[in-house]
Amino acid sequence: MIRLVGSWIDIGKIYLSSIDALARLSPQLHGALCYQIPSQKDVLLSAHVDVWPLRQLYQLHLEQYPQAGKVYAATRTWSLMYWQPVFLSVLSVHGIKMAPKLDTLKQHVQNGSIYGYFLSHDDMDVGHQDALIQIAGKRLKALCEGYYQALSSVAKMPKRNAFRLLADSVLSALSRLVSILPVTNQQVLAWSKSWLEALGLSSQSRLMLIDINAKQQILGLDRIACCMHYLRDPKDLCRTCPKQCKDTRKERIKSHYLNELIA
């Protein structure tokens, strides 16, 4: 059954084809975003979080980067928890025009990371895009509130920075849509405001336009939050690290984009 916002309709096999469409599109948005049917031996992260996989991930990052300390380990674990639900939510709304039920989402915990996902063949919402953004945003916020509570039993992390990083991830996912869907920068900029409003995170992150040449612009992330990567090496700042001035960030994002074209 697929639920139309405001009413119910029987559409038979359309949901199955939507799962197939999502599975085909997702690796295009991010190479590690792959559909995987779970087996009994798999370690999974779901909406009803078992904290022991989080504790293992947190401990692993502590051991791998002892110089970075607990703040980095907690932030890195948090970032791994939410990135797939974010990308799947954005891709579902704008790629297949549906809002997924995230309470059925299962994420694979493997090789010291979280990648690979499974969505139950359950109902999804279809409707106007503005309504879908609101639905998907609220579901994503509810899921991440639960994730944050689970992480808080393992490690300390300021909630303000945690949810600013969530906002960054949503805008990062949106910015990638330009490369796989027939959408414009201006459309993505408008959607970014709607998504942040739906999440209750307005003004907690931004996208900016960066000139490549006289005829081309790309979108770059204008972050407020810090992912704490610099704690591993103070000289190794992310391209979008807010510790750098905006001009430096723009130039690094532009250089990365041009290098990707060459590669």
What's this, in brief?
This protein is α+β, with helices and mostly antiparallel strands. It is 50% helix and 14% strand.
Describe the structure in your own words.
The chain is an alpha+beta fold. It is 50% helix and 14% strand. The protein contains 7 helices and 9 strands; from the N terminus they run ββαβααββββαααββα. The strands form 3 sheets. Strands 2-1-7-4 form a 4-stranded mixed beta sheet, sandwiched between helices. The protein has a 3-stranded antiparallel beta sheet with strand order 3-5-6, covered by helices on one side. A hairpin with a 2-residue loop joins strand 1 and strand 2. Helix 1 packs across helix 3. 35% of the residues are buried. The N terminus is likely disordered.
